[in-house]
Amino acid sequence: MTDLSDLIDRVELELNDTANAIWDTDRLAAHVRTALRRFSQIKPRCTWEQITTTDGQREYSLASIGEILEVLDVWYPYTADAPEYPPERTRWQTQETGTLLLLSESAPADNETIRVLVTKPHTIAALDGASATTLTAQEKQLIVLGAAAYALQSQATTTINTITASAWTQRQYADQAKALMDQFEALARELARKQDLIPDGRVQWPALDAADHAEESNT
Q1: Largest CB tally within 10 Å, which of 17, 145, 175, 214?
Q2: C-alpha closest to that of 202 among 65, 86, 60, 82
């Protein structure tokens, strides 16, 4: 059994619909996807990635890293076999084109390493081709809760002014959806808050002002 099918089974239990009388597995997989996307917005996963430099080049595509949400930190230069301590950091910017711009005093040489801390969406094995699940057991349960909330929310929309097989009214679906969604959002934010309480020892670089941009363009 894949992680996706296990989660779908758990969502069915949460909805009391193990026979799929109301929600088929494809619909539930879509709701798992929506819950995962929302959870990733609230508490994304953090991962270190590496980019190999080219002589004289300051701008590097982030496409090779995969789907990312945000760049948090950049170490350059970085030696993987003997990491610098404390880490070497340079000023940097991300561009709308999906590239990382190094604002180091000198341009990189060939085959140096940039170490980049990024946030990424979480994945679930077998969902959208993912080979691994990046969620903890607690986070999986949150996805079950969120997916059930989205399923009820969708059902509330489609049952307006109709008689349902379950005898639930549109209002009952909507009320239960809100109750579960409120739990999902609150618990996800609590996990994110606990993560934010971890001390951050990164150097805080001042933002570039107009004079900095002018100086960069003249060098």
Answers
A1: 145
A2: 86
